[in-house]
Each structure stands twice: as structure tokens, then as C-alpha cells.
Amino acid sequence: MWNRIRFIYEDCFNVAVLLQHSFSDYANKRKEPDAQLGLQKRIDEAKRRLKAISYIVNRNRSERGIYLNEEQQRLIQRTLKDWNVKLAGRKDSSVQGYDKSAELVKGLDEPAPSSSYYGNQYALDECTKEFYMNELEGHLNQEEQTWMGVKNILRPETASDKSGEDVIVEWKWKEKLEKKIDECMKERSHLPVWSVLSTSFTPSILATQLLSSLTAICSEGQNVMPINVFNFMLLHPVMQAIQQKFMENFQLDEKQFPMTTFESDLLLQLTSVLSQLIIESCTFPSQNANGRQEIRNAFAIKTVSFEEETSLSPEAIFTPARNSLALRAFHFQIPPRPWIDAGVGGPWFSKTFDIIRNLYDFRELSSIGEMRARMQSPQQARPVFDALNQLGSTPWRINKDLLEVLKQVFSMSYNAKHESLLRPLAVPMHAVTVDVPQFQDHFPGKTRFQVVKENHPEYVDYSRKTAQSIKRRNEYNSLWCWMLYRVVLAERYKDCVLFFPHNMDFRGRVYPISPYLSHMGDDVSRSLLKFAKGRPLGRDGMRWLKLHCINLTGKLKRASIAEREQEVERLMPLIIDSAEKPLEGKRWWMESEEPWQTLAICFEIRDALKHPNTEEFLSTLPIHQDGSCNGLQHYAAMGRDREGGEQVNLVPCERPNDVYSDVAARVELKRIEDEKMEEGKDAEIARELRKAMSEAVPRKVIKQTVMTTVYGVTMYGAVLQIKRQLKALDIDNEHTGLFATYLAKKTFASLNDVFTSSMQLKDWFRSCARGISSLWRPVEWVTPLGLPVLQPYVKALHTQGHLVHKPVGSKQVDAFPPNFVHSLDSTHMMLTSLHCSRRGITYASVHDCFWTHACTVADMNEICREQFIALHSLPLVEKCAEDFKHKYLTPEMTKILSPEMLTKMQNLFTVQVKPGKLDLDEIRNSVYFFS
Predict the structure, then answer these.
(1) 627, 628, 774, 861 from 849: Cα distances, Å
(2) Is residue 703 annotated as part of the catalytic site, yes or no?
(3) On the chain, which terminus has fewer CB atoms closer than 10 Å, C or N?
(4) Which one is catalytic: 703, 723, 762, 811?
């Protein structure tokens, strides 16, 4: 191997030095003297060769710019010093900082002027270096665990004094499991399985591991669980422990051996053996129909073809004192480990994690592998990874005032009489509030077989109501458990500083890794969190708090800023009442579109007003600035559509425009024109539609279709959307389908009228994707920040002994326009993050909704607009076309294609859309662009 390695460049040489040290450490730990002696000879030979060539290594050129941590760098420096190699004090500028050709990030390496710098937005006075080092030890221990128990603070009043955990101890599951495991290990009935298990576990440790998983399974609150979910929850912790034991035995770390390599057959055997072990060992006492005591199995495997009445337990035999939650994707109490070049690194400190989420339906293709294969240099996409690190480093806290009210409201979910209060607050009722019709109550003294045989007329109605009740009960249980997880986690961490590591999808859209508690969720999730770092409101902060409050209500979307400010002053008594008496007062906050976030801002306004000096009040509540139909904003900017830009607030105006209302008005005008026609199919449908819907076309009928245009909605999808809205208006007859098709056509036509160039660009994107798919290639491009994007919609095929990824043509075509736009909106978000970070502005985002402190909203708004203009000042469409030509019309491909096909593809990859007259500079003065 050593004879084949090229050591002339520094990276390869450095890795070889580290490898040589690893071999030396390994040899020193070997117990067999003969083997150790032979290995040491080879290591000494490698060391002599490395020392001999250390003087000729080119230290001014790096092949890949690999990342070395401080310890590795010190080790290499010490080694070279021992070998008397002279080290020049130089820095390889070729791998430092961002790519010099990346125009959008120029200047970010320069410090911000002191006059516009707000200080370190990540530093907290109470979180010193010593504090984080102490927390790190606990975090590393947590990374070794699979489950985390959190106190169940909402056990029902009907629950017994004994918790589920107490009952399990009473039933002696651990002892029974341990005894059965010991017997199996001695018998070795399934030799491969028990060979694997016995080398990694003692009977006691394995029994404890299985019991932890069973407790987590039982805390799900269901009597029926899909077998694949059960198997994963049971097997994953066991395999994780086996992997860890293997690496300890062979002195490996996860970087050297990142994947479990168990064969699928062995995994199947393990699942089968462990399931049978649990079924036989885990029993509980019960009374039969005759009142006699009997022992029953707690677990069983059976086939279920419909939602059963037993899918939830009405008796609540198992009510845990603690809920067990998976730790693999969780929030942190220390800043996460950063992502570095090529998306390597964070957030775990002892385990690997993918920076890109794979699509489950298209898992044959690894998005992260494809991304890394297309990286041209170490500097590429560094701004993307930096933005992820910045978002993950923002410290958060639980909003305690809000949590207390939420706990009170959530505790009402056991009583059906509170449903009218809880439903508008999006708090689900508990499953016990759903009454399922009982068979014997409807057909006393009869069996189901008798009733079916008699063809009883009431049985059909009974079956329908029963099925509906069971479905509703199961839905309630799912929603209730989801709410419970968030509430108990918020209670558990209410006194802690929290961090939310982020990763992204293949387009670069960013998401917190934690599935339970994060700011990217519904109204409840967002309301539970606030920034850990407080900043003084300053001169303009209270104004932004009040505007945020009225914006959350959703009732003045078309009003000007001045009108909103006037209205919020009128509502101040109700805002204070909501904060002082959220459940006993007038409950104004409950009338809001986002009630929980509204209550949170009511608390913040009250606390600020109570402060002796409002301007000095340390505000921690995030203030949101939302894009105005952001996807269409990007389309309008790319196509320079002046009229479309006005509708999505790219152009200054006195009050915010509403694209949905404008399109609805245009659809109505087209209907009126059709009604005036003497004949024609559209005329007939328009007149029939007028009879069914005499008023003008409502905004809500076409809103979803307009909104999803940017997401690639098809005519078929648009018809279904509009049909649902018509039915909601009680327009449900034999003509509803015709009406929906008619309105969908008029909606698309109206969009083309407003967004002329934009819709032409969308059609061009689709045509390009169709042409690329015909070449058996997936669509790929590079974002303005250098992130390689490849659409993963492929199917694996075996052709002539080779594995090929065949593009799914329809999916490639339909998904490309929205995916391209999403890659642009993520780029805009990341640019805003990078520039906010440079100025010390706290920043968080939910896609096209940007968050910051009240005192820095104006600064963030300025940055947001400047970066949008900078992004769309680039020739994005033209570069996309040139990249397509370079990528898909290679010299090899031009030899294969016929002259006619080559000409067709060259024409296809040439932009022929004439841009409009929108002036991007106007965006700077548009108040409602993001507001």
C-alpha cells in the first residue's frame, strides 16, 4: 500500500503520518509479542520512508483541503519537529475562507463596523466555558443512551396510584427476561443469534436493555402497533449496543467504522428471537369472564386488516409515570458540533449524522453522497454549512408563563365538556372522551354472528358509527400523544438553555433535527420557545412588539401599518387582560388565528410595560417577518414581472397587496365575459355556475391553487383543490366537477396575465426537465451559494450487469420548478443569516419567515431586502441554462445524439423568455415585502 501512495502533496502526507501513529498505538496495545514484533517492523519501515520524503513535500498546494482538528495538527507539527523538518510560518490561502468567485458572500470575512455591531449574539452571561464543559460530560453520556425518560406530568385523575413502571416491577418482567435469556444463552438454540448476543451482553444487561425498549413501547398508549415499528424500537438499541461493544473490543471509533454491517438475515433472526423471548416472558395477571385469576401474555403478534376496537386501551392499565422518548434526534443543552467542509461533522460529538435528509420513497439514491461527489473544492458550499451552524448555535429557552397556561388547558382534555374551548386552541381531546358504541348495548343477548345472519337493519348503522368512533379515537390518541411529548419536554427543560441543530433536504431547505421541540412547528411549538439572550427594546422595540401582536391575530392583513398601530392601541386593555387573566378574563387571545403565540406576545407586552424604563426592558420574544407569497416573489424577481411584483409586494405601496384577492377578481371578470357570450361551452358553464354561486368568486376558492402554483400543482391537482372549496360552500351537485375544472382553467389564465414572464419561466423549467429525463439523467444544478443539488427521483434498475438509476420522468418534470425556487428561497434565508451573524443580530427562520429581537427588526429587514436584490441581480436563469448545456451536452453526448436531437436540446437549453420591467431596487423601499 505504501508504495502506491503519492506523498508529494501535504494532505496525503499528513494523513499518512496520522495513520502511522495509529498503527503504532495499535501495535503497542497488542498482547501477542510475535505479532507485535512483525507489525512493528512494518511500522518502522513506514516511518523511515515518511521521514525521508518529509523534506520534499509540497506545502503550498493541497489536494482536498482536509479538515484536521487541533490535536491532529499538534501531533503532525510535533512529528515534523522531531524529524527536524523546517516549517515555514505560512497559511495556505487557497483553502481558507470562502470561494473568491462567490460574489454573494464577499465582505463577510471583514468585521462589521462597530457602530452597527450588536455584540456576540450567541454568548450568555450565565453560560461560561466551565459551564459548557460540565454540560458536555452529561451530553456525551446522553449520546450513548437510546431512550430518555421524562416525567409524565399529565397522568389522568383516574389513573391508579401505581405507575406503569411500578406495575412492570410487580409483574417481574426483568427477572423473567433475565432467566429466559440465561437459558437461551446456555442452550444456544439459535447459534448465530445467541453468539452475537452473548459476546455483547450478560443476561442482566440484555434484560435491562429490552425492558427500556418495552417501557418506551408501552408508553405509546396503544394496544396495537405496526410490527415494523415494534421491531425497530426493540432492535435498534440492541444493535447500537452491539456496535459499540465491537468498536471497543477492536479499539475503533465511529469515524473508522460508521455503519453497522449485520446481514439482513441475521437481523431477521434477531427480531424473531427477541420477539418470541418477550412474548414468553412478559405476562400479567388478569381476571377472566368467570372472575377467575389467569396469567395472560402482555404481547402477541397477529394480523390486523382494519382499525380494531382494541387499538386503544379504555381501561388504561398501563399509565407510565415517565414517557420514554428516542434520543437520536433531539435538542441539545450545549452548542452542537459544527458542520464543516462537504457537510462532515456535527451535530453529535460521538456519532455521525447526515447533513442531508434522504427521501424515503427514493432511498435508492444517497443525496449526501451525490452532493459530495459533485464538490469541486473544499471551499464550495462553505456559506451553506456556516448558515446551518449559525442557526444551530442560537440559544433558546422555554416560555414558562406560556407553559403554565398550556398545562392547565391540556389537563382539561380528559373531559368532553371542554371540547368547545380546546378545539380553537388546537389542543386535542384525550381518546377516553370518545364513546365507542358497544355491541351488547345495541344487541343485548346476541352474538355478532347471529346479528349478521339475521341481516338486522340496525347493524349497518351500528357498524358505521362504531368505525367512525374508533377512527376518531385513534386520531385523538395520536394528536394527544404528540402534544404530550412537547408539554413534558418543555416542563423537563424549562430551566435550561436549549440549542436546535439543523440539517437540510437535498434542495438546501433547512430544518431543526429535533422532531419534538423546536421553533419550526405549529402555533403551540412556536409559542413555547423564546430567545435565551435578551436585548433591550430600545426606542422602536415596543412598536414592533405591538405590530407583531396584531399581525398574529390575522385580522388586519390588508391594513396599512398605521391602521394596525391604531388598532393595537385600541386593543391594549384586552391585551393586558389576556396576560393577567388568560383563562379567567375576557380571553381575547383565543380569538386570534395563532392564539398561543398571541398569548406569548401579550405576556411580553405586559412585562415590558411594567418595567420602570420600557426601552431598557430585556425582550426575549422573537418577532416574525413573513414573506408575501415568497415563492411567487422569487418567480416575479426572476422574470422581472412588474405587475406580478406589485401583487406580491416587491414594489412599494400604501397598503399590502393580496395576490389571492387579485387573482379571484380576475377570475370573476373572466366569468362575466364568458356569461356575455351567446354560445360556447365556457358560456354555458359560467351561467350554470352563476346559478350555483351568485356572488363573486371568493378568495378562498382559488387561494390554495394560487399558493401551490409555485409548488408545481397540476391542472388535476388544482381541480381537486377547487372542488373541495366548492363543496365547503355547499355547491355539491353533478356539475361541481365541471365548475372546478372551469375555475382552475381561469385561475391559471389569470396567473399568466399577472405573472407573464414568471409562468413562461416555469414552463421552460418543465421543458428542460422533460428533455433531461429523456436523456436518462436526473435534473441537477448548483445553488448560488455553491450547494450541488440533484433531484433524487430515480428508480434502481439492473441493466446488462450494471446498476443504473433511471429517472422517474413525471416526478423529475413536475418537481423541478418548485425545487429550483425552494433552492433560491433557502439561499436567500442563508444569506440573511450570514449577514445578520456578521452584525451580531440574533436570527432564526422558518423557511420564508425570519425571526429576530424587537430591537433589531429594522436591521434584519434591511439585510433581508439587500440580499434578495443581490441574489436576483445575478443571471440565475441564464446560468442555469449554461450549466444544463455544460452538464448534459458533453462532447461524449454530442457524439451519441443525432444532429436533429442535438439541435433540439441546444435550443431547449437556451432561455427565450423576455423579462419584464420590474426594477429590483424598488424592493428596498417596499414595507410589505417581508412584514
Answers:
(1) 6, 10, 37, 11
(2) yes
(3) N
(4) 703
Amino acid, res. 763? D
User: Which residue in the list 182, 522, 626, 753 is annotated as catalytic?
Assistant: 626
Backbone phi, psi, residue 847, to 5° = 60, -100
Q: What is the pLDDT of residues 241-293, one digit of tens each?
A: 887 777 777 666 655 555 555 666 777 778 888 888 888 888 888 776 666 77
Q: Is 361 a catalytic residue?
A: no
Interior angle at CA 786, CA 891 and CA 98, nearest 5 = 125
For residue range 574-593, what is the model confidence (pLDDT) as tens digits?
A: 999 999 999 999 999 999 99
Name the amino acid, one letter, at 18. Answer: L
**Least trusted range by pLDDT, from 146-150, 177-181, 360-364, 869-873:** 146-150
Strand 529-531 to 794-799 pairing: unpaired
Pick the catalytic residue: 401, 577, 825, 848? Answer: 848
pLDDT(33) > 90: no
Q: Which pLDDT score, from 0 to 100, does residue 610 have?
A: 95
Helices 630-639 and 699-709: crossing angle in degrees, nearest 10, is 60
Picking from 556, 694, 544, the residue whose alpha carbon sits closest to that of residue 624 is 544
Model confidence pLDDT, tens digit, residues 483-520: 988 998 899 999 999 999 999 999 999 999 988 889 98
Lookup result for grid cell 451519441: 896
Domains of the chain from N-terminus onward: 2-95 (no CATH), 149-326 (no CATH), 398-496 (no CATH), 535-619 (1.10.287.280), 642-754 (no CATH)
Q: Which three cell numbers stand for residue 927?
A: 414595507
CA angle at 182 for the pair 177 and 184, rounded to the nearest 5°: 95
Q: Is the peptide bond before 347 cis (omega within 30 degrees of 0)?
A: yes
What single letter denotes the amino acid at residue 167?
V
Q: The pTM is what?
A: 0.80
Whole-angstrom distance, CA of residue 286 vs CA of residue 300: 16
CA distance 94 to 673: 64
Q: Rounded to an integer, what distance in angstroms lies between the CA atom of residue 403 and that of residue 529?
A: 10
Q: For residue 92, indicate whether it is catalytic.
A: no
Cβ atoms of residues 680 and 687 within 8 Å: no
**pLDDT band at residue 4 using 50, 70 and 90 as cut-offs:** low
442: cell is 345495541
